Each structure stands twice: as C-alpha cells, then as structure tokens.
Amino acid sequence: MTREIFSNIYLIEVPLPNNPLKNLNSYFIKGKKRNLLIDTGFNSDICYEALVQGLDEIGADMGNTDIFLTHLHSDHSGLSKRIASESSKIYISSIDKMYLEYFSKGDYWDDTKEKFMNQGFSEDEFIMNKETNPIIKYSPPYDTVYVEVENGHVFDLGGINLETILTPGHTPGHMCLYVEEEKILFSGDHIIFDITPNISPLPGVTDSLGSYLESLEKLKTLDVSYTLSSHRNAMGDDKKRIRELIDHHVERLDEAYSIIKDGKRLTAYEVASKMTWSVRLKSWNDFPPHQKWFAVGEAAAHLDYLVQNRKINMTKENNINIYSTL
Ligand SMILES: [Zn+2]
Fold first, then answer.
1. 293 and 127 Cβ atoms separated by less than 8 Å
2. Which of 205, 165, 189, 154 is nearest to 72 (CA)?
3. What confidence tier does 295 reach under pLDDT thresholds 50, 70, 90?
4. Residue 141 domain-assigned (yes or no)
5. Would you say residue 316 lies in a domain?
6. Of 84, 208, 265, 319, which residue is most buried, by most CB within 10 angstroms?
7. Under 8 Å CB-to-CB from 245, ≥6 apart: which residues?
8. What is the rounded CA–CA span in Å between residue 170 and residue 38?
9. Residue 259: CA atoms inside 13 Å, Cβ hemisphere, count?
C-alpha cells in the first residue's frame, strides 16, 4: 500500500513475508531539486515488485532519486542497488558502510563462527543459521557502491532539508533523519512502535545496549511532532515510546541478572533459553536457528551491559564466555 502521508512525503509498504517484522516502511520524499528514497526492503523479488509498484503509483523517477539507508540490515539495504538508477547515490553512515562492506565479503560469516561458539552455539546450529538467516540470504550484492555520510549531514532536496542524526545501538552506525521545519523524525529501527528493536552485539562493539539507551536519551529532548518508523505501524508518540523502550530494557536487564544469580555460571545461549520471548513457539527447542541467533544476541547485549556496569562477571573457559554474578 502506498500513500502520501504529508505533502511530498510518501509511505510505501514493502511486505516481508514469513518475517515477524511483517513489512518495511519505505519513504519517498519529493524535492524540487532531487528526491530521496529512505530504505528499500530485502533483496528478493517479492520486495522488489512491491517497491517498484509503489514507486510507479507515486510517479517517482529513480533517475532523479538518491537512496538513504538508515542502517546496514538487509531489510533496509537489500534492494538499494537493484532499485537505483545510474545517477542514484546510495547513502549510509560511514560506520554501517564499513560493516556492510565487511559482511558482503563472504568470509565475515566464517570469521564470526568463533563468536557464535563463544556464546554457546553448537557448530550445527551455526551452519543452519548461516544457511537460513534472512540477513544473509537477502543482503545487497557485494559490489554495491555506498556513499558515506556523517552525523549532522543535511540532504537539501529543494524545499525540504533532512538532517542525519547518528543513533548507534540497533546497529553501530544507525541514523535517523530529521526535518526541522515540520518536526518530522524518520526513526528507522531506532524507535519502532509495535515491536522492540533487536539489540545484538557486533564485532568491535563492547556495549550495544548501552549505546542504544544513550541514543534514546539523546532523542528525548528533540522537538518532534511526527515520528515515522521502519516497521509495522509507521506513526506514534515518540516520547511515550522512548520511555517504554527504556523500561523494557531495564526489565530485561533484571531478568537476565535473575537468571544467573545464586552462583550460576551460564553462557549467553543458556541465558537466552531461559528468558521470556514474545513468540508463538512452545519451547526454546522450537526456535528456528536464526531466531535463536537473534535471541542469543539480545541476551548477550544485556549481559554485556551488566558486565560493563560491573554488575556481573564474564570469564572465558575453553574459549566459551561464561557469565556469573560477582
Ligand atoms: Zn529493520
């Protein structure tokens, strides 16, 4: 479904079949000089056809359109090269550009094997995840050329200016876009209204949850009238949602702590298997491998935060990370 939500700002709903996120909200902004497409969908035919149909309905000319990716994940970046015209630039933060280029080289997933095993995954589960994870399956082609932008970069489209705000957490280089005049915030996956954005550690990041909470704090004082998010229901009250997201993570930190207290010594995998998840599956064993991967990542992000804040310890035993209370 495609609609004009504000003057010259269009929402194209791109379906994400068999994915709990359900849809990607892609935004098309018509400027007097140039247009900007924010996020694209998985690199799959279903997403591509929906995006092309939405752009056709608007009468969008990709020959006069650049693309901005809020972050590296393939539900946002996947179609960027396929939908771009010869003149389109594909913008992304310099930090996520670095990760995206690293991921698209096949060896990242082999490099990361050790990290999976550190968290308590078996080798079989690692291989199954690698084969089925949509982030890998639907990623953009390795030869996509990205143009990096920094925090505070302004896209002057003619009649509308959008400024980047670096909001690390969901990914290390996640960016929102802010239209100061109309007080509109494109929040990407930083603020989603119907689901909680996944927070998982990436290589080189010591405390992704800490970064995420800081980025939420940073937006508390931003003057916003309309927040447009990347998944499910596009709009909502940003300040209320920021409070709910912070509360949610405080509860999850308490839950992770209570699982390892009383002298237990557990891996992130074991902690994840004991946490509560809002999925329609009976037990941890029913989780598909890539859902386990998200869940263990989420557990690890909370455990890392507790380690950084000196609430718990992490020790290495036979190359496996073991978490315990102090
Ligand atoms: Zn997303």
1. no
2. 189
3. very high
4. yes
5. no
6. 208
7. 191, 196, 197, 216
8. 17
9. 24
